[in-house]
Amino acid sequence: MSREETYQIHYIVALIAEFAKQFHLNQRQAYNYLKRFKGIDYLMSFYDILHTQSFEDAIHDISIICERDGGTLKYQIQTRWRN
């Protein structure tokens, strides 16, 4: 396995974990959801671009892809501004 493939696998595993946290799922549920609604395919196809973004932005993008393919989880943008 090449170094780039190893990085890609580590990134995808980490992103699945963050996706699970965002949507209050366990990691298996998150993986199954992403697999079913084409999120994993998107991750694999666009890894070169996605890994340069924050996890928050990548999760937002993937949630949109999954929604387009029938997924029902809605990403809630969290504001970071506090008074």
Notes on the structure:
- This protein has helices spanning 3-22, 27-36, 39-45, 47-50, 55-68.
- It is built from 5 helices and no strands.
- With 83 residues, the chain is mostly helical.
- Helices cover 66% and strands 0% of the residues.
- The relative contact order is 0.15.
Write the layout of secondary structure elements.
Elements: H1 3-22, H2 27-36, H3 39-45, H4 47-50, H5 55-68
General shape? globular
Identify low-pLDDT runs: none
What's the count of strands? 0
Distance between the termini: 49 Å
Beta strand %: under 5%
Order of helices and strands: HHHHH
Q: Helical element count? A: 5
Give a quick account of the main beta sheet: strands, pairing sense, barrel closure.
none
Structural class: mainly alpha
Mean pLDDT: 91
What is the helical fraction, as a range of percent? Answer: 55-70%
Whole-angstrom Rg: 13 Å
Question: Which labels suit this protein?
Answer:
single chain; 83 residues; 5 helices; 66% helix; globular
Structure described in brief:
By secondary structure, this protein is mainly alpha-helical.
